[in-house]
Amino acid sequence: MQIKEIKCKSLLNKSQLADYCVNPFVGCQHACKYCYAEYYTRKYTKHEEPWGSFVDVKINAPEILRREILRKKKGTVFLSSLTDPYQPLEEKYKLTRKILELLLRNNFSVCIQTKSALVLRDLDLFKKFKSRCEINFTITTLDESIRKVFEPFSSSVKEKLRAIKILKANGIEVYAFFGPVLPFLSDRNLEEYFGTMAKLRIDEVWVDKLRLKPGVWDRLQKVLEENYPGLVGKWKKIFFEKSDYYKRLKKKIKEICERKNLKYVFCY
């Protein structure tokens, strides 16, 4: 892992996901095989290393935010669009915590996207937000063997579910992100998946399909060939030929969620 400390010129940027987005890091240690953030990271930086092998740490992020926040209109900040704010390095640098402290002090709302149980460290801050504070937890699968293949360095399924349970017990708004759906893998037992989300009292489940930005398919094809060779052809039919797979999936999920009285949103 190549770790580099850098200084950024700006941090609080306009976003389509919320009023603003903040990325404390460039790159991500979780090294998820399906992640399309690599495309945007390479587009705006000079990184050519394999995805998941580098992270730039914006060590002056709190200082920059402290200045920017004074001249910005209050709104909702999305943490983070191109990295995980609670990847392992956060435990050392505490950038996300310092950013949250500033947002809290200035009465901004926050939406956090993560797949790390480290998020529990900042429970004390979440409980102090008078404006909206929501955690969007990525739960791609309940199968630990699949998680290890596609999200090798994220928290385990057990750790994620435990974190959600604790957050909900403390009155924190929690969304589950079921995405990207991995055909014939993460969709094997939809009843179990959404039943678990219902038991955890998840506020809403967001469902998204796999998005093949440049470079993603090459990475995924290697993963499939090594771990699920029988799925290579099936995935090609879905992503490169005409297929109603995601249309049929949407119908199944809609039926299950409505039966379980679980709120849901489709991102496709």
| Uncertain stretches | none
Largest sheet: 8 strands, mixed
In percent, how much strand structure appears in the residues? 15-25%
Determine the structural class based on helices, strands and strand pairing. Answer: alpha/beta
End-to-end Cα distance: 34 Å
Determine the fraction of residues in helical runs and give it as a percent range: 25-40%
* Elements, N to C (H/E): EEEEHEHEHHEHEHHEHEHHHE
Instruction: Please count the beta strands (DSSP E, at least 2 residues each).
Output: 11
Task: Count helical runs.
Answer: 11
Q: What is the rounded Rg?
A: 19 Å
Seen as an oligomer or otherwise, the chain set is single chain
Average predicted confidence as pLDDT: 95
User: What is the approximate shape?
Assistant: globular
> Strands of the biggest beta sheet: in what spatial order?
2-3-6-7-8-9-10-11
